[in-house]
Amino acid sequence: MRGVETGADRFSPPRSRGTAAPPGVDLAALLALVAKGDQAAFEAVYDRVAAPVFGTVRSVVRDAGLSEEVTQEVFVEVWRAASRFDAGKGSPMAWVATIAHRRAVDRVRSEQRSAERDRRAASSVIAYDDVAEAVEDNLDRQRVRRCLGTLTDLQREAVTLAYYAGYTYREVARLLGVPAGTVNTRMRDGLIRLRDCLGAGR
Amino acid sequence: MRGHPEPHTLAGAYAMDALDGRDRARFERHLARCQECAREVSGLHEATARLAVAAAAQPPPTLKELLRAETARTRQLPPVIDGSPAASARRPGRTGPAGSRRTVIRWPAWVPRLALALAGIAVLAGIAVWAVTDTARLSGPLPHGGGIAAVLTAPDVTMIHAQVRTGGTATVVMSHRERSLVFAAAGLRALPASQCYELWLVGPGLDRPAGLLPMPSHGMTGPVIASGLRSGDKLGLTVEPARGTRHPTTRMLLVLAL
Q1: pTM check: above 0.80
Q2: Measured between beta carbons, which residues in chain A are less than 8 angstroms from residue B76?
Q3: ipTM score here?
Q4: CB neighbours (10 Å) of residue B206?
Q5: Is residue B21 within 8 Å of B51, Cβ to Cβ?
Q6: What is the CATH number of the domain that holds B50?
Q7: Contact in structure between B41 and B19 (CB atoms under 8 Å)
Q8: Do the Cβ atoms of A50 and B44 come within 8 Å?
Q9: Which of B213, B220, B219, B225 lies closest to B181 in space, CA to CA?
Q10: Which of B80, B143, B86 is nearest to B108 (CA)?
Q11: Helices B21-33 & B113-125 angle (0-180, nearest 10)
């Protein structure tokens, strides 16, 4: 089992409102220290979010070496931009995950090599299977998997192809043979349903 | 409008980075005016964060060591202060007098700006992907990379596009707060080896030289950074002898109000 050695709790995003203190030191408080140049706090942040960041990046980028490179860029960005994190606008995990996912997607798109794209197209479905298979010992995965199961097939395919494989909604539409407008509606509906099922709303 | 969906319906795709450059830019313009959309996107980001957590996988232990060195030499961004001159200097996009197109790049303060600005440059000026990738490695050793990063990530960053009189498109990304601009161009007319393009800051006083453009590569020129921007300056471009001159000696091929 890759990626679960540190236990599920450590990666849990704070519950929605953020009023109850999460176990251990609050990730938001750590980020505030990082903004002041605190290296130890940065390492504590790294320990808590490195696995979700690396896992997300690898799921989009696929190549192991490139995934490490992008993950490194993500954390340099977290270090640089820690002062821009605003707890009023979202959870720290969402802030970091947003940076990570966007960085991964932008890197993949900037490569744009057709051979690479074709290879990823062939393996795009694996991303969801990876998640689906890796449920043991990880409550977060179980919850996400269960909630993905409550989506319609089209919603789930649209969400997983976009998030885990890094496709644009137009590419997803082409892959699924569905009009682009339908795909972006399903992405939104699907994410809203997922958010509500996970109790991740704010 | 076929192919241009109602921005509001794109919140899900946006939250998953499933919009390509142009769609993303359009949605972000919409987002800047639509508080409800911003709230929706941040709620959806809580859901995508769970997707990230579910995909968790341990990175190799060496990464932490590398980062220790990397952060030690990486300067951090200052916090954004609401109501600061930089914040109030943001203006809505407008069309310049010389047929130029101006975009104020605006997105939620906590979204990393660099990638967006780079993507914007790449898409709109047509700068080759290699240039973007190279510039994006800002943490590595890069000639004037730090300066470019400072401009691209400034809170008051503005992007201007304009046609060069003798052919080609110029893109200027500028920050008054940083008193600097980044210039890049695509498709400039090729010059003989004895000549080069020179940038000028055209102010109320003398025109100040603002740098020579490097030789184009694959039709793309730059990016180069010009500093020492003063209020009221315009940006000019001329063709000069290869080593540059102190004052423009030929007709301006481009004059941009900054």
Answers
A1: no
A2: 35, 37, 79-83
A3: 0.80
A4: 11
A5: no
A6: 1.10.10
A7: no
A8: no
A9: B225
A10: B80
A11: 120
